[in-house]
Amino acid sequence: MTTTLLAAAEPELTGLAAWAVDLMETLGAPGAGLAIALENLFPPLPSEVILPLAGFTASQGSFTLAEVLFWTTLGSVVGALALYSVGALLGRERTRAIIKAVPLVDVADVDRTESWFVKHGKKAVFLGRMIPLFRSLISVPAGVTRMNLALFLALTTAGSVIWNTVFVLAGYVLGENWAVVEPWADGFQAVVIVAVVLAVGAFVAKRVVRNREHRRRVAAGQETRGGI
């Protein structure tokens, strides 16, 4: 790996991102693929840093653009397949059992989610590969519902190619300014996180109100029976 990469990377990167740099220094383009595979399993690994950095490295001639796109896409698919396997091993009944232990969530919610995924799973898997947080998580319900494996791999590959290509090309074109991609990606992720938090908050509030109404109706019914 070139000393230019070290000079560009070390001032900005620490922790997990710096580890990804070391991985690419040691293994080259396959190192980028391995980092992306692990990013699927451990979302704190920043693909929004790894991919542009890999693109920048390709622009320096350390490996080709085609190599980095191939290996990072392969890494995405391998990571997604691992999580699909987790979902498949959990299965429908184990998932329902786990959900029963979660406060404010009913098994009926699982059934509705499963029905939605069966109907819209193709779009969810494809588009989910291009949304922070959901990039990894979307593979689990695909495994739980036993989506056709060949279809899952095709959709995952297509979505990953788009996501990876955008960030790798950004790093390739921007060169030593590859790091400017990260704030934009962080902003996108922040929007997703806020949307998720609001959705969860709305769900919890609705469920709390529903449970209170249920308890009130039960109490009113008991009083009525007691007065008879």
Protein architecture, described:
With 228 residues, this protein is mostly helical. The chain has 10 helices and no strands. It is elongated, with a radius of gyration of 22 Å. The termini are far apart. Residues 6-11 have low confidence and may be disordered. Belongs to the DedA family. InterPro entries: DedA_domain, VTT_dom.
Outline of this structure?
Helix content is 82%, strand content 0%.
Instruction: Give the CA-CA distance, first to last residue.
Output: 85 Å
Q: Could you describe the largest sheet, including whether it forms a barrel?
A: none
Radius of gyration: 22 Å
According to DSSP, the number of beta strands is 0
**In total, how many domains does the architecture comprise?**
1
Query: What is the average of the pLDDT values?
Result: 75
Total of DSSP H or I helical runs spanning 4+ residues = 10
Q: Based on CA inertia axes, which overall geometry fits?
A: elongated
Q: Strand content of the residues, in percent?
A: under 5%
Q: Regions with pLDDT < 50 over 5+ consecutive residues?
A: 6-11
Q: Helix content range of the residues, please? A: over 70%
Helix/strand/pairing category: mainly alpha
H and E string: HHHHHHHHHH
Domain VTT: 45-172
InterPro entries: DedA_domain (IPR051311), VTT_dom (IPR032816)
Membrane topology: Multi-pass membrane protein
Protein name: DedA family protein
